[in-house]
TrEMBL record:
Keyword set, alphabetical order: Signal
Protein family according to the UniProt entry: Belongs to the bacterial solute-binding protein SsuA/TauA family.
InterPro entries attached to this UniProt entry: SsuA/THI5
A Pfam family reported for this protein in Swiss-Prot or TrEMBL: NMT1
Signal peptide: 1-29
Name recorded for this polypeptide: Nitrate ABC transporter substrate-binding protein
Length: 352
């Protein structure tokens, strides 16, 4: 069994002060499958893409079904992969050309690695939701001021929820809640047992408790991305929980590799749309489900709330809408005015 760490960022929200004083809950998490193989120690070179990615069902599926090998033969490019949850570390060490992270964590990535970056593709929306116990009468998180709020990190999706909650209810996570950091895969169970009063939780890591009906989502089950689109960027599908980020100097010098990488992931997203149920059955560990009942629940849930985007490429309008999450976070005091928007490389609708 392996504890699942969360992505890091040097940017902090004001809630970090409260978290530092809160009780830290450490519990054992579910097993996770990796991509396999050690990190590449080779320097960047033409024709090779060094890609570091956390364990992922679409990537596993493309490898096991021969799609990656086929792409390498047809494109003439070779992809070297590294399996790790510490994508930042390998990127900082110069052992990766492309990694994934949340779009709103890219400024922290640049600060931490001292490398100029550019977002070249999108993958999935920030999918966390706020859950409460099923018998709790709360209609919004504002009804639970002063209560215990479980989070899996003070950054990542907590940043987005901090801005949204300030916008919707004029509440501040640090001042208005007892913020408790707990293991990402155990939050909903802690909630069901009454050890916390609400949580910012991933739906795929809460399947058993959601299926059993011991917990329920607030805000009509909407994720942070769905609420952000509704309130601030109509029609948008972000902010993104994962985008593909590359070193800018590498992108500038390797346009062919960038385009080929996006072609590969375009194929992967199409495979997800066609074989989503098969992937959930093949790789239940990626969705924190084990029993047939939970697997069936997750299939149905994802069919209704799919967080994977349809197209890895994006246009300038999409980049502008995605950047507006930074406007909201600055306006609500979640990040400082000195935090700049990330750089984007729109390729949809652009002649290649």
């Amino acid at each position: 069994m392996q504890e699942v760490p969360v992505r890091r960022s040097t940017r902090t929200i004001r809630a970090a002060v409260a978290v530092a004083a809160a009780a830290m809950v450490t519990l054992t998490a579910g097993c996770s499958a990796g991509l396999g193989g050690p990190a590449s120690s080779r320097a960047a070179r033409d024709g090779v893409i060094r890609f570091t990615f956390a364990p992922d069902p679409i990537w596993d599926y493309m490898n096991e079904t021969g799609i990656v090998d086929e792409w390498q033969r047809e494109s003439g490019y070779h992809i070297e992969t590294s399996a790790t949850w510490d994508e930042f570390g390998l990127f900082a060490g110069g052992h990766a050309d492309i990694i994934s992270t949340a779009s709103f964590e890219v400024p922290g990535l640049e600060e931490q690695t001292q490398r100029e970056t550019v977002i070249i593709g999108r993958y999935n929306a920030e999918r966390s939701r706020i859950l409460v116990r099923a018998d709790d009468p709360a209609q919004t998180l504002a009804d639970l001021k002063g209560k215990r709020l479980g989070v899996f990190t003070t950054v990542s999706g907590t940043l987005v929820w901090s801005a949204l909650l300030k916008q919707m209810h004029d509440v501040n996570l640090a001042d208005d809640y007892q913020v408790i950091v707990a293991d990402i895969q155990n939050l909903s169970n802690l909630l069901a047992r009454g050890e916390i009063d609400a949580c910012i939780c991933y739906p795929d890591l809460s399947a058993g408790d959601l299926r059993e009906g011991s917990v329920r989502p607030l805000y009509d089950g909407k994720s942070s991305a769905e609420l952000f689109a509704e309130l601030d960027a109509p029609g948008h599908d972000g902010p993104m929980g994962n985008v593909f980020v590359a070193r800018k100097d590498w992108v500038d010098g390797h346009p062919g590799e960038v385009s080929a990488f996006l072609d590969l992931w375009e194929r992967g997203l199409g495979e997800w749309q066609r074989h989503r149920d098969d992937m959930i059955e093949r790789y239940p560990q990626h969705f924190a489900v084990e029993t047939p009942e939970d697997i069936a629940f997750m299939k149905d849930y994802v069919a209704q709330h799919d967080w994977v985007v349809d197209d890895v490429r994006f246009d300038q309008k999409w980049a502008e809408d995605e950047s507006s999450i930074f406007d909201l976070m600055r306006e609500t005091g979640v990040i400082g005015d000195d935090v700049t928007d990330p750089q984007f490389l729109p390729t949809r609708g652009v002649h290649q």
